[in-house]
Write the structure tokens for this entry.
Amino acid sequence: MNSLSKPLFLAAAIVAAFGAHAQETKPTITLNVSSFPDLDRGIKSAIPLYKKLHPEVEIKLTSLAYPDHHTAMTTILATGSNVPDVMAIDNGFIGKFAESGGLEDLSKPPYNALAQRDKLAKFAVNQSTNSAGALAALPVDIGPGALFYRKDLLDKAGVTEADMTKSWESYIESGKKVKAATGAYMLANALDIKDIYIRSGLKDGDGIYFDKKGNSLVSTPRFEKAFQLAKAARTAGIDGKIVAWSNEWSESFKRDKIATQMMGGWLAGHLNNWLAPESKGKWRSAQLPNGAYGFWGGSFYAIPKQGKNKQAAWDFIQFLTFNKEMQLASLKGQDSFPVLLEAQKDPFIDEPMEYLGGQKARQAWRTAAEKIPATVIDKFDPVAESVVNAELDKVLEQNKDIKKALADAQSQIKRRVRR
């Protein structure tokens, strides 16, 4: 990602927004923050800006690799040892931690965070609200879904953006043309289609894997259609059977082997900075096929119940989330799309993106963020996702009957959840 040194000039603006510099030095508070790359870069940029406002607060950042961080936080909450004041949580883990009972409920006094929820993307708040209605963390960024595509490869195949996005069937047909004309796979893995389709057509308050009573939904037509589409893509030979974030995946971008990638808007920054910097100007961003809207990722900060400096922690988290200039600093420095609606209205959102051929792609990401349904999480979502993915793999690799696969998934989920 880009260096975050450039947002430092925003310090003066942030100070002005808050009123003035602190006029007197108070006893020093050490605020321990635990995070992970690259989210930790946002903390590193925030520290000098926050110190301008609160010279009495010393921020100590501890950063571990993505999986190690979440494993460590699980252990810390369970043992109560070395508990940080502020804990970062990625979208992939938020359901688990929200249901753990080890985090402060930010919806209650003295936090009362829900009084400000209208300032944030509506779906992001639901992501960190557990089944008991407690707000376990505050979102700091979001990942509105987008379909990134290589315009040069589609042009060579005579495929337009409209051809590709009209429907899932047209996306697969377009993929056949692209593969025939260029040799590139239309997508890295058919799993991507399933992940988007099962999130399509939902309404605010719906669950992805479970209904409001905790009943599994994986035997519904929504999942059956998702499996059918993924199977159709595999049968057509348009997916590379490549696992996201693997070395093969990153090399495929460098070698022009993937024509499209469905992911959060933040992928543009990854493509520009390390995945495929030499492909500048060749990539574009479109809305997902068939009018679908979904999200990839998103980051949160929580306050452990056993933390020692809860008021200072809450003040710092609010600075990261509700301060427009800090949100824009993260967007400009690390391509983190703002959760704060005020920041989404900033003129910077309307600026052309050089890597995407001058396209004003952030405007479309903002539109997607407005349309993403505020689905609810369930503490057993990770279990259901693991089971469903395993059954889909049997469909794709072993030609297992789809109805049988979903029935088996339903049975396994019931057995493992045992509500």
